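Worked example (supplementary).
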Amino acid sequence: MRSLFRTFSTPALVALFLIAPAVTVSAQDPRIQLSHLDHLATRASQTVDVSVDERLIQLAAKVFNDKDEDEAQIKKLVSGLKGIYVKSFEFDNENEYSAADLDTIKSQLREPAWSRLVNVTSKREGNVEVYVSLVGGTVNGLTVLSAEPKELTVVNIVGPVDLEKLAKLEGSLGIPDLGIKSSKKPKDEQ
Amino acid sequence: MKRTTAICVSTILLLTFLSATTSFAKGDDFDSVVKMIEQFYSVRHQSLPFLAKAGMKVAGTAAKVRGGDFKRFADAGSIKLATFEDQNFNGDFTVFRKSLNDAMSSTWTPLIQTLSATDGEQTYIFLREKGDKFSVLVVTIEQRDATVVQATVSTQGVALLMKDPEQGAREITKEATIDQE
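After joint prediction of all chains, the assembly is encoded as:
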């Protein structure tokens, strides 16, 4: 232990102890930073920024009426979620966003916390990637990155969520209609 | 001596900034947002609170007479409205957006924000709880016009707004400005 203190100065160790828990929390937190894409708004013909945090989700659970079929379903789907964040850009021309812009998102979706789902299809043109965040075998977050020539959309859902749930939430709470579904056939159909 | 002066100046600046932030958070956010738009874009607003309220009543009565299904978002009499007509809204909207979000973040929750660089349009919807109801603040800025609406909405209104925020914001603004059309 003494050698440890000899190797690192006291301020450095204090800083290390302060930073370490933050890094651990950040590694487990499936909320990704989307603000790196904000500069694209100046070039986009349409930018949509949706932020439904835990407070609003709790609010949704409170205000959605169980007697209304749609609202009851949304209430059930958002139960347990901690946040829904969407950033979507539509451009008049192609090549308005760069690979570096995509990398600001992809760099946050690295293993071991995040895994990319294969066998996913979308009605959207271009490249659609779906990632899930797993902690102890349980999904605690999902991110969809849809990169079309004239459109870029990122959906980040924090909490227990799967593709089926995402598909049902599309069109509600500001989540765009991505038409995402698993292309994997159920076992009995194979 | 120079160092002491620098510290004094920094302290005064910090206290001024903190005092401004606190007064924004505690004061009437509607007025602060209107003032922020005026200062940022160098424009002047027209305030029509009584006409807006009258418009609400007229619209409600007309719908009842027609026997229509009148769904109202905002509580009658709760609407605060400021309009900016036929003025220039030239300015970096990313800077305006950041200022607005920074100012509102402590007391309001942003729900949805839409921007269009090509059309010069911006829409911001903020929510916060108000007893057993909710306050909604909708800011719409276009190239030549802008509207700020703050209204109290019921839980049912918030549910509709959350299901389809863009449509909900349009309805709230339309309700507030209906008498002007």
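Two points are worth noting when inspecting this output. Residues 13-27, 53-70 of chain B have pLDDT under 50 and may be disordered. The interface with chain A takes residues 92-94, 97, 109-119, 127, 129, 134, 155-156, 158-159, 162-165 of chain B (CB under 8 Å).
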